[in-house]
């Protein structure tokens, strides 16, 4: 079976700095792969490469067997993205309804804004509000609604709960897990929070300084890590080992 999203020996350079060094990963249809590692390990760079936002210096990224080379028309119908900071990722001049509707406007298809709002747990009456009038959790729900508006095959979540309060983090994580199941989404989930990774992911890949050091089923890697770096990451979150 061919992977839905494939990274084949992907390298990225920023001048003389090698941000990604020959990373190879397959994400199968319907699974959630978590990408973990400390800040600067290359997690977001890999996500940007999948979106065509980050030029690669070697290797190839393929979506459904087709090479990704820069941004392209129809991309939002293939890959949705939820960024870390919901306030920074939403245009403050636009109403919530317009933000959610925008992928459909660009793709020239009709989007049912109210149905999407209900699906992500937002009161449709908020459609005329602006981002600054919503809480952080509500803004992230708007970002999620926008990401799934065109029913993409793949959802990339880049630290989607990091900017939220602890109580809200759990709500957003449960929403994402439900959406992955109901919409049969394939997910690349990027996080430094290993508790959320263990809860939502099927497999995990560990990046260190731009290199893939370990990957495998979530339970196997968490309970029997093979690399010292993975063990260090896990030891920093002892609550996961109880």
CATH architecture, please?
A: 3-Layer(aba) Sandwich
Which term fits the overall shape? globular
> How many distinct folded domains?
1
Using only C-alpha atoms, the radius of gyration works out to 18 Å
Please describe the biggest sheet, giving its number of strands, its sense, and whether it closes into a barrel. Answer: 6 strands, mixed
What would you call the structural class?
alpha/beta
The oligomeric status of these chains comes to single chain
Helical residue percent?
Answer: 25-40%
Let me know the CATH homologous superfamily.
P-loop containing nucleotide triphosphate hydrolases
Annotated CATH topology? Rossmann fold
Secondary-structure blueprint of this entry?
Layout: E1 5-14, E2 17-27, E3 32-36, H1 43-50, E4 58-63, E5 66-67, E6 79-82, H2 96-107, H3 113-119, H4 136-147, E7 154-158, H5 166-182, E8 186-190, H6 194-200, E9 203-208, E10 211-217, H7 218-223, H8 228-235
Parallel strand pairs: 3-8, 3-9, 6-7, 7-8
Antiparallel strand pairs: 1-2, 1-4, 4-5, 9-10
Describe the structure.
The chain is an alpha/beta fold and 242 residues long. The protein has a single domain (29-40, 72-241), classed as Rossmann fold (3-Layer(aba) Sandwich). Helix content is 32%, strand content 25%. The protein has helices at residues 43-50, 96-107, 113-119, 136-147, 166-182, 194-200, 218-223, 228-235; strands at 5-14, 17-27, 32-36, 58-63, 66-67, 79-82, 154-158, 186-190, 203-208, 211-217. The strands form two sheets. A six-stranded mixed sheet has the order 6-7-8-3-9-10, sandwiched between helices. Strands 2-1-4-5 form a four-stranded antiparallel sheet, covered by helices on one side. The longest helix has 17 residues, at 166-182. The chain is globular. The model is unreliable at 238-242 (pLDDT under 50).
